[in-house]
Design goal:
Blueprint lengths: L12 H9 L4 H18 L6 H7 L2 H16 L8 H4 L10 E5 L8 H9 L4 E5 L9 H15 L1
Parallel strand pairs: 1-2
Length: 152
C-alpha cells in the first residue's frame, strides 16, 4: 500500500498500480514495481523464502514481472466476468488436473473448487502444505505426477 498515493488507497488498487507501473518516470514505476513484486514473492509460498523475495526485488525483474501481472489483472485476464466458469462445459471430455495449494492467498482455493464443479471430469488435487508457487514441494510433485500420467 505504501507505493500507492494515500488518496488512491481506498479505490481500485489494480488501476492505481497500473498508473504507477506504466508511468515513464523510474522514480514512480520503480518503487511500485518492487512493492508489487515483493508482495507476490512474500505471499506465493507457504513458508517465507527470503531468497525468493530478494530475487523478486531486483528492479529489472520486478518491473517486468509487475507490469505483466498487472496488465492481465487490469484486463481481468482478458475474460468477461464469469466466462471461465460459464464456458467450462466446453471442456467436457477433455482430461484435466487442477492442482492447488490449500494455503494459496494469491488465488484462494475456492476458485479451483468452483472450476472443478463446472468441469466435473477434471481431477482436483488440493495440496495441503502449499501456497501458490509451482516449485513448492507438494505442488511440484503433483505437477510432475500429472504430467507423467498424461505422457503415458
Amino acid at each position: 500500500m505504501e507505493a500507492v498515493p494515500p488518496e488512491r488507497r481506498g479505490g481500485d488498487l489494480i488501476a492505481a498500480y497500473h498508473d504507477l507501473l506504466f508511468d515513464a518516470d523510474p522514480l514512480v514505476h520503480g518503487p511500485a514495481a518492487v512493492a508489487w513484486s515483493t508482495w507476490e514473492a512474500d505471499t506465493i509460498t507457504l513458508r517465507r523464502r527470503p531468497e525468493l523475495v530478494e530475487q523478486f526485488s531486483d528492479p529489472r525483474f520486478a518491473l517486468a514481472f509487475a507490469r505483466i501481472e498487472n496488465h492481465y489483472c487490469a484486463h481481468q485476464g482478458f475474460l468477461s466476468d464469469g466466462q471461465l466458469l460459464r464456458d467450462a462445459g466446453r471442456l467436457a471430455g477433455i482430461p484435466g488436473v487442477l492442482i492447488h495449494g490449500r494455503h494459496d492467498v494469491c488465488t484462494p482455493p475456492v476458485g479451483a473448487w468452483d472450476l472443478k464443479r463446472a468441469w466435473p471430469s477434471a481431477e482436483l488435487i488440493m495440496v495441503e502444505d502449499a501456497g501458490h508457487a509451482y516449485d513448492e514441494p507438494g505442488i511440484l510433485r503433483e505437477l510432475l505426477r500429472a504430467t507423467d500420467r498424461f505422457a503415458e
